[in-house]
Design brief:
The chain is mainly beta. The chain has one domain: Lipoprotein localisation LolA/LolB/LppX (outer membrane lipoprotein receptor (LolB), chain A). The protein contains 3 helices and 11 strands; from the N terminus they run H-H-E-E-E-E-E-E-H-E-E-E-E-E. It holds the Pfam family LolA.
């Protein structure tokens, strides 16, 4: 089941150019607090996305995120739909007419969907990479129960969530890039309800 979830969306490490100097501990702490405050200020996000993977696949679709704990990923062409309702996350496959459901905390989505988002708690901080146009923060599961590393990407100098990358031993690298974002608009609660009928009607609400 982990492969089903992990192949969908997430996260990895990009190496710094060799000529960049490492940040001081104080600078890193300031950057982390700034990013924490930014994410906590978000009420919702609606965005188009492009997802690419090492195997050459590319998917597009619409991403919905309502803090805390809720998301919806609708693919344009894939039969898959991902819904998180604040406690559980489900993958719905309209072709197979199946629903696979687990706790959010068992998947990489827990890094993004934490109720009290904090890059220093509940995750192991691997590093902060600050460039002129973006900041990348890489974390991983401290207990090792979730394979791989998860990198959140933020646009700079005006902060915005640009997307994420996830790398693991099975799928390699998966990039999830947000486009045409609309922040803090009202999103219907029904978007984040896991329902049996979703699998029978193509994974989209009518």
């Amino acid at each position: 089941m982990k492969h089903l979830f992990f192949a969908l969306a997430l996260f990895a490490v990009s190496l710094l150019p060799a000529n960049l100097l490492a940040q001081t501990t104080q600078d890193m702490d300031q950057d982390i607090q700034r990013l924490n405050q930014y994410v906590r200020s978000i009420k919702s996000v609606r965005s188009r996305f492009v997802q690419t993977a090492d195997n050459g696949s590319m998917e597009t679709g619409t991403f919905y995120w309502k803090r805390p704990g809720k998301l919806r990923i609708e693919y344009d062409q894939s039969p898959l739909l991902i819904v998180a309702d604040g406690a559980n996350i489900a993958q719905i496959d309209k072709d197979l007419e199946t629903i696979d459901q687990v706790r959010i905390s068992w998947t990489p989505y827990k890094f993004l969907l934490a109720r009290n988002f904090d890059l220093t708690k509940g995750m192991e901080l691997m590093g902060v990479q600050k460039l002129a146009t973006e900041t990348r923060v890489t974390v991983r599961d401290p207990d090792g129960d979730i394979d791989g590393e998860f990198t959140l990407v933020f646009a700079e100098p005006e902060l915005a969530l640009r997307g994420w990358t996830w790398r693991n031993g099975f799928d390699g690298r998966v990039d999830f890039i947000l486009q045409e974002q609309v922040r803090d608009s009202k999103l219907a609660s029904s978007l984040f309800v896991i329902r049996e009928e979703e699998r029978r009607r193509g994974g989209r609400r009518r």
